[in-house]
Specification:
193 residues, alpha+beta, Ubiquitin-like (UB roll), Translation Initiation Factor IF3, 2 domains, four-stranded mixed sheet, 4 helices, 31% helix, rod-shaped
Amino acid sequence: MSIYGGWRYSHPPISIHINISGGTAIIREHRINAEIKVPEVRVTGADGHQFGVIGIREAIALAEEQGVDLVETVPDAKPPVCKLINYGKFLYTEEKRLKDARKKQHEVKVKEVRLGSKMGEHDFMVMLNRSKEFLSKRDKVKVSMRFRGREMAHMDIGRKVFDRFIAEIAAHANLDSRPRLEGNTISAMLSPK
């Protein structure tokens, strides 16, 4: 324990920095013990017991008496809500909760399946089954077909294969973008139902 501004506290001010996939960081700070500078606070115990609205000095004395920290959990409330808890344990459980939440998130990936205008029936079924597998894992699928050389003169043959593929996978996928021709490649985007 050390002295800070005339009040005793057990931990220095601690910040949790969490990096989210978008590159932005969330900084969560909790004021504890002597860092709380309001005259009155609403105090609750770790078990949920309500102590009511009391002065800050009484609240800090109550925390020292119980051997825990006074942690400001809702600073925007009038008066601010503080909890009598072990701050280190609180940080650990908060970090663990955020880690579990990140584990449960699914990052949507875009998988690509390339069709050929002269592909055989077996190859067609392999690509169809592979696309169904990707869709069952909640990934998006980009279906594309490239026309080379003399195939450009017979795009209608490739278009029939492409349309058949879209028709057969319709039960498992939503068509996000209609098939469109860009240069010598026709493509469409599918998302899971």
